[in-house]
Amino acid sequence: MRAVIATAAGGPEVLQYTDVPDPVPGPDEVLVRVAAAGVNFIDTYRRAGVYPVPFPHGVGSEGAGEVVAVGADVATLAVGDRVAWESGGPSYAELVTVRESRALLVPEGVDDRTAAALPLQGLTAHYLVTSSFALGPGHDVLLHAAAGGVGLLLTQLAAARGGRVIATVGSPEKEQLARRAGAAEVVRYRELTDLTAELPALVRDLTGGRGVHVVYDGVGRDTFDASLASLRRRGTLVLFGASSGPVPPVDPQRLNGAGSVYLTRPTLGHFVADREELTWRAGELFDAVTAGALDVRVGATYPLADAAEAHRALESRATTGKVLLIP
Fold it and tell me: Any idea which architecture 2-118+296-326 has in CATH?
């Protein structure tokens, strides 16, 4: 089969589209013909060596497709089933193995590209609004990169739960996407000369001087100080990504000075660690899609052979919504 391999730690140029042996499913795995693979920031972190992985490295962990073979111990899936996954084998490929316990049966009415776009970013958005901070009516929310893959889903879920979303975006086009997703207020950060000083002032103007109950920050280094300064007393900063780079070490005394605020750095794996929690979150997301209550925007698709271009687009923040690779 054809697949994308990162030959060494580095930039997008290390991604090689090549022939590799077909994977063979283990007893508790299914073999899936990939219809679409999701492109995520974590893929770029692993490719770049920010998250240590062995090289050569088979890239990607998310996608959707059709089961073409099942392992001897698989009991709930059959050949021909359509499944999606957020933690399968290397997914920038024509074929992938997925453990039965991580495979999500795709319901009727959800197409393959939507199914591939939803698991990792959708599950992330779900745990952020339900578990990292239990968002509800009356909560003021600051949400960075609101027109990105997680951002658009998170904005919709936050608004649906009664949150008032103050979104940050980088362009007029992205502002329109954020507003359509449910953002009540939008700040174009590129129009600010000093993000760290100006954004908290704007946020406080929009919240009667109090600040927000929660900040969802997947950007990291560039926004962290502004995020912390935008919180109200005993607010929560949920730092769930680092698209601009990792945040330097933080003195815990800063949390005191900011108003006895909370700082958490969650990761998806801890919120879908068992099958029951995984299927609960995925079930709510698929139900919302089939009911027309959640729009999954696929912003760009690339042929599998052009994975390097997809990484360049994602890392330059040129994309909106989800980026997919099509074998």
Answer: Alpha-Beta Complex (3.90)
User: Which residues, including other chains, have CB under 8 Å from residue 220's CB and lie 6 or more apart?
Assistant: 239, 241, 242, 243, 244, 245, 246, 247
Whether residue 54 is preceded by a cis peptide bond, meaning omega within 30 degrees of 0, is: no
Using an 8 Å Cβ cutoff, are 42 and 60 in contact? Answer: no
The Cα 156–Cα 215 span in angstroms is: 15
Span 234-288, pLDDT tens digits: 999 999 998 898 999 999 999 999 999 999 999 999 999 999 999 999 999 999 9
Please give the order of strands across the beta sheet that includes 164-169. Answer: 185-188, 164-169, 140-143, 212-217, 231-239, 262-264
How far lies 269's CA from each of 123, 128, 278, 314, 317, in Å?
A: 10, 13, 10, 22, 25
Gap between the Cα atoms of 292 and 269, Å rounded: 27
Residue with tokens 């912003």: 299
Helices in 182-274 by DSSP H: which ranges? 195-206, 224-229, 253-257
Instruction: Compute the residue count for the chain.
Output: 327
Q: Is this prediction's pTM over 0.85?
A: yes
Domain with CATH 3.40.50.720 in the chain: 121-268
The DSSP bridge pattern shows strands 29-39 and 95-99 to be antiparallel
- Give the homologous superfamily in CATH for domain 121-268: NAD(P)-binding Rossmann-like Domain (3.40.50.720)
